[in-house]
Amino acid sequence: MNSVKLFSPATVANLSCGFDVLGCCLDNVGDEMIISLVAEKGVRITKIDGADLPMETHKNVAGVAVEALLDQLGDETTGVEVEIYKKIKAGSGIGSSAASSAGAVWGVNHLLGYPFSNKQLVAFAMEGEKLASGNAHADNVAPALLGGFTLVRSYTPLDILKLHTPDDLMMTVIHPQIEVKTSDSRSVIKPNITLKKAIHQWGNLGGFISGLYTEDYDLIGRSLEDVIVEPLRSILIPEFQRVKNAALAHGALGCGISGSGPSIFTLSKGEATARNVADAIREVYQTTGLDFDIHISKINSEGVRIIRS
Fold first, then answer.
1. For residue 155, what are the β-bridge partners?
2. Tens of pLDDT, residues 205-215
3. What angle do CA 219, 301, 225 make, to 5 degrees?
4. Which active-site residues does the annotation give?
5. Fewest 10 Å CB contacts: which of 50, 96, 235, 275?
6. Could you tell me which of 43, 149, 52, 51 has the C-alpha nearest to residue 105?
């Protein structure tokens, strides 16, 4: 086998209470990629469709992620070609760079006979995130590679945990057609927080994880609260509070900023509620004059998957 076509999913990071440590994986939104092993050594990006992104390997998140994998293997002879068909818009807040990074290393690992576990691949994909945002965060690439909900217990050393996913959880995401760069969104965050806010946030994070394992949907909803980052970042997103109010009024368990924004996520119990929430937030955004997309998705428990080999 020397080529594989794969689906690399969009992801929602932070999930309100877990800045830089929580993420989950969407099921029907993502990029497609073709990864090939070739005779000519080195890593090359041979095609990008759907986005204006760098073709140079050292400037492309998929390229640097694959190079990190091959460097760890000490492999100086393997040739890799990467085709990227972008379905996730850059700067959307649903893991565009993570999908490229995670998909590329997953595909190469698959073709090389799985020298690394999916958890080990996270470190290589993080190199792509570092190129994209200046910060090697794992809250998007981890769920893309492992599926479901993931927790970054530690960055030093890297320790990733896959969490339980209740079957009835559904995600509704609205993506306003504006760009909020991760680097810009991070610049508004204060470097220090009060002990009072930290304690509040730790309680929410513990409650959310407990809610996942006990399938206590009320607890999940109570825990989807961000007292640290959302108050600062929400001002960058038009009509954020109106969207949040509408989502909660129509049955959403919780609502918050997806990653660095501008996308807004809601979690609901059951597809019917998720669709009601979609209708409610669509009505809000139709008054803004802005273009937007809405995605309704189950939580993808698999992560990156093969379309064709």
1. 158
2. 999 999 999 99
3. 30
4. 129, 182
5. 235
6. 43
Q: How far apart are CA 63 and CA 107, in angstroms?
A: 12
Sign of the dihedral defined by the CA atoms of residues 35, 115, 77, 62, in that order:
positive
Kind and range of the H or E run holding 273: helix 271-285
**Cβ 38 vs Cβ 46: under 8 Å:** no
DSSP string, 117-176: -HHHHHHHHHHHHHHHHSS---TTHHHHHH-SEEEEEEETTEEEEEEP--TTEEEEEEEE
71: which residues sit within 8 A by CB, 6+ positions away? none
pLDDT digits (tens, 9 = 90+) for 12-40: 999 999 999 999 999 999 999 999 999 99
Question: What span, in angstroms and rounded, lies between the C-alpha atoms of 277 and 118?
Answer: 34
280-to-92, 230, 246, 251, 274 alpha-carbon distances in Å? 21, 21, 6, 10, 10
Residue 133: band (very low, low, confident or very high) from pLDDT cuts 50, 70, 90: confident
Is pTM beyond 0.90? Reply is yes
Taking alpha carbons only, the member of 91, 170, 160, 87 closest to residue 122 is 160
Average pLDDT for 121-140: 94
